[in-house]
Amino acid sequence: MLLDVSRLDVNYGRTRAVKQVSLSVREGEIVTVLGANGAGKTSLLRGLQGAVRPAGGKILFDGTDLTQAPPSARVRNGMMLVPEGRQIFVSMTVHENLLMGSYMRADADVSRDMEAIYDRFPNLAERRNMKASVLSGGEQQMLAIGRALVGRPRLIMLDEPSLGLSPLFVGKLFELILELNKSGISILLVEQNTTMALEVASRGYVLELGSAVLEDDAAALSNNTALTEAYLGGGHGPAAGGTHAHA
């Protein structure tokens, strides 16, 4: 098991955002986490990445206990978070943003990986010396994913990657997720577009009010109309996922 999370608690003061959540991601697997606004999805990812120190539970990554480790240790071990809203540095160039992804790498030579990113994302290559602020929303998302790839991740955690993107870019994004997975990267996907998420994932978890209320394979979840009505706001479109910072 690559990622093995057991009974995780994440608190903000007295607010329990994540309650006793257990989940796993196998090597080479795409797993999605679904839930309505405020379900605890982003808080779960923040707890896994160490941005918020877990109040309880255990996080094992390839057998290493990272529960109380700082975010830097998780990055070194190969866990990368692409946060909601991209969070790129708009005052820096595209190239400088990508270089930020290499800051925990022990080896100094990242040029080959940088060129691979530019080959994968030609739009970024054309704008490598421009400020990131000139990029479209879709290009900014590609930059955020490219920044994670420079760190040579084994697991990428994606938080609402399709949020605010045009339908055309959403299609490209999910093609990219499948490509990355085929290249050997495991994916933990928090996504508002329930239909697309379940198409690419092998398994899924549903959160409600911070707790995992359902786990099943993606096909079963996709055909579960009771799930859609009870936990995902009654639809498979953008309204079915969280967009809040503490969602």
UniProtKB/TrEMBL annotation:
Gene3D superfamilies: P-loop containing nucleotide triphosphate hydrolases
Database matches in InterPro entries: AAA+_ATPase, ABC_transporter-like_ATP-bd, ABC_transporter-like_CS, BCAA_Transport_ATP-bd_LivF, P-loop_NTPase
Molecular function per GO: ATP binding; ATP hydrolysis activity; branched-chain amino acid transmembrane transporter activity
Origin: domain of life: Bacteria
Family according to the record: Belongs to the ABC transporter superfamily.
BP-aspect Gene Ontology terms: L-amino acid transport
Protein name (database record): Branched-chain amino acid transport system ATP-binding protein
Keyword annotations from UniProtKB, A to Z: Amino-acid transport, ATP-binding, Nucleotide-binding, Transport
Organism: Microvirga lupini
Ranges where the ABC transporter domain occurs: 3-234
